[in-house]
Amino acid sequence: MSKTDGQISMPVIRRLPKYYRCLCTLEQSGVDKISSRKLAEIMNITASQVRQDLNCFGGFGQQGYGYFVATLRQEIAKLLGIDTIKNTVIYGIGNLGRAVLYHFDFEKFGFQLKGLFDKNPELVGTELAGFIINDDSKLDKFMSENSIDAAILCLPTTSAGAVVEKLYAAGIRNFLNFSHYDIRTNYPDCAVEDVHLSESLMTLAYLMKSKDRNN
Amino acid sequence: MSKTDGQISMPVIRRLPKYYRCLCTLEQSGVDKISSRKLAEIMNITASQVRQDLNCFGGFGQQGYGYFVATLRQEIAKLLGIDTIKNTVIYGIGNLGRAVLYHFDFEKFGFQLKGLFDKNPELVGTELAGFIINDDSKLDKFMSENSIDAAILCLPTTSAGAVVEKLYAAGIRNFLNFSHYDIRTNYPDCAVEDVHLSESLMTLAYLMKSKDRNN
């Protein structure tokens, strides 16, 4: 669907966060080593899929010995790039922006929150989670002074285009995008991850329907 | 990764909402007919992928003639099951629940919002978006009286397990799940769509890293 890292396909890349999350849980539970069979079982995929996936990145296990949980978790963290700091702002501090602000464990994944932006004059200048909400007048200066790497867009589709234009002009090339505005096509040099909640609702509708049909 | 509808694979199912969204936009723009080549271009996939996908469901186009946008959109709506009413509650009315309440266009996809639930005594009994927020004491009666089909869980992972247990006991078998609590494994007869925002952050980290390496 979107960009890949050379040979590695997007479905493999999309499984990496699941491995990471699974390995974090195992590590917290005190598990030292795990077989591809057992890891596959927890992840609800096949053991050969696990071996194939991890081989894409050079392989981290020895045939018959399984994987060291802590080592594999660290290697996947490196692969994902969550072990490096990425200075981040949230643009749009409505309910969605607040939900993202309070529910995301940013720093766990290297995203260091540096500031909040909104256009709403009632919000601008107020404090939230230790940050003063800024408006666009501060945008250019803020981005360069704070070496901002990424923006999380919590905006409706209708206003996202104009905001992306400003952020792009201020040097931002990385976006987590909750709107349906198509950043990828308009700015092909950007890294974009779209979160489309409406697609999740549609998928649930489908799963409900197919479950009912199969029962 | 999870359940499929007989022969149709999960990746195909996951593309259906994207087709639907794309066709809605085309229809709103007054486009009557579209070729698989053009549809593929907009969707950023290959034309043969489009033809293959739509053939999975019986095919809706004629070779060389393309697809009628309105017909195809309606057929995909039927396939997805978004053309039927699904009575729905949101459980958890913190920032995430509010974001979901105000940002999701539920009814567009057949999810009719019927009620809100939370445990927080400060919220219970207050009104939001025309609904009185209920607590668990009303849960069983509410679910059966309102024929609730689905629950949207806007809860932290730690409290999700206990809530799912109650909802399952009250007859709910369909969940949109924002927590990392694994409903699918614990209740295999349920339709579950997980929305894991942390995985989106990790994927963005990866895309940023691989973009920087390729530049």
List its traits.
homodimer, 215 residues, alpha/beta, Arc Repressor Mutant, subunit A, Rossmann fold, 7-stranded mixed β-sheet, two-stranded antiparallel ribbon, 9 helices, 9 strands, globular, disordered N terminus
The string of secondary-structure elements of chain A, in order, is HEHHEHEHEEEHEHEHEH
**Shape field of chain A:** globular
The CATH superfamily name of the largest domain in chain A is: NAD(P)-binding Rossmann-like Domain
Number of helices of chain A: 9
Largest interface: A-B, 71 and 70 residues
| Count of domain modules of chain A | 2
Indicate the multimeric state.
Answer: homodimer
CATH topology of the largest domain in chain A: Rossmann fold
Kindly state the percentage of residues in helix of chain A.
Answer: 40-55%
Q: What would you say the CATH architecture of the largest domain in chain A is?
A: 3-Layer(aba) Sandwich
Give start-end ranges of low-pLDDT stretches of chain A: 1-5
The order of strands across the largest sheet of chain A is: 5-6-4-3-7-8-9
Rounded to the nearest angstrom, the distance between the terminal CA atoms of chain A is 33 Å
Which secondary-structure class do the elements of chain A indicate? alpha/beta
What's the CATH class label of the largest domain in chain A? Alpha Beta
Secondary structure: elements and pairs:
The structure is a homodimer of 215-residue chains.
Chain A: H1 10-28, E1 33-34, H2 36-43, H3 47-56, E2 67-68, H4 69-80, E3 86-91, H5 95-103, E4 111-117, E5 127-128, E6 131-134, H6 139-145, E7 150-153, H7 157-169, E8 174-177, H8 183-186, E9 191-194, H9 197-214
Parallel strand pairs in A: 3-4, 3-7, 4-6, 7-8, 8-9
Antiparallel strand pairs in A: 1-2, 5-6
Helix pairs in contact in A: 1-4, 2-3
